[in-house]
Specification:
Number of domains: 2
Shape: globular
CATH class of the largest domain: Alpha Beta
Strand order of the largest sheet: 2-1-3-4-5
Helix content: 40-55%
Radius of gyration: 18 Å
Order of helices and strands: EHEHEHEHEHEEEEHHHEEH
Strand content: 15-25%
Bound molecules: calcium ion
Structural class: alpha/beta
CATH superfamily of the largest domain: Response regulator
CATH architecture of the largest domain: 3-Layer(aba) Sandwich
């Protein structure tokens, strides 16, 4: 059975999340502070950890860092406050896999968790990710497709890496900006469009890998090819 740990100090919210996840047939454990959260994640195996960042003792970021330092790659979904782009950035930098912003709809939380569970587990100690015939090596800063090296500049590489780490999930331009660009100004939006265009031209000239979901955003699609 899929086991989820919820680290959230707000008891009302924790209860709502718990009820929803139980209804969705997950096994759920709740803890209400960071210290206990960290000790649990180091001791037991979970399939997904839902982690609030604003905790009374040890912050969510510290829990996350402790978890990743222990070598665990368990997917972590962080819960962040509104308008806290920095918090999200910090969380993602510390090794979170995704986030939802409070207040959130339980269905969104459910969808994010399902997406994390669908993700192929990363191979420990390996710096390469392979998705749909494309291989990205973060240590060599190299991308190959069908055995051929494809030259990418830094931002294109980052964008591709992000998509490859989150296949089959749709991201709005805003979400991509929040995760990849240091700021979200209008010039950054333009830069994202340009980078996306160049990346597609280099890596996906047939337009079969990175799909535009009209009115929503972009996604790297593997399911039709691999499953
Ligand atoms: Ca909190």
């Amino acid at each position: 059975m899929t086991k989820i740990l919820v680290v959230e100090d707000n008891e009302d919210l924790a209860q709502v999340v718990r009820s929803y996840l139980l209804f969705e047939h997950y096994e759920v454990e709740n803890v209400f502070n960071g210290r206990e959260g960290l000790s649990r994640v180091k001791t037991y195996d979970y399939d997904v950890i839902v982690l609030d960042l604003g905790l009374p003792d040890l912050s969510g970021i510290d829990v996350l860092k402790g978890l990743r330092e222990s070598g665990s790659r368990t997917p972590v979904l962080i819960l962040t406050g509104q308008n806290s782009v920095e918090e999200k950035e910090k969380g993602l930098d510390a090794g979170a896999d995704d986030y939802v912003t409070k207040p959130f709809h339980m269905k969104e939380l459910g969808a994010r968790i399902r997406a994390l569970l669908r993700r192929p587990p990363p191979i420990a100690g390996n710096n390469t990710i392979s998705v749909a015939g494309v291989t990205l090596d973060t240590s060599k800063f190299q991308v190959t497709k069908g055995g051929e090296v494809i030259q990418l500049v830094n931002r294109e590489f980052q964008l591709l890496e992000f998509f490859m780490r989150h296949p089959n999930q749709v991201f709005s331009a805003e979400a991509l900006l929040n995760r990849i660009w240091p700021n979200t100004s209008s010039s950054a939006s333009q830069a994202l469009r340009t980078t996306m265009k160049r990346l597609r031209k280099k890596i996906d000239p047939e337009g079969t890998l990175i799909r535009t979901v009209h009115g929503v955003g972009y996604m790297l699609e593997t399911e039709t090819k691999n499953s």
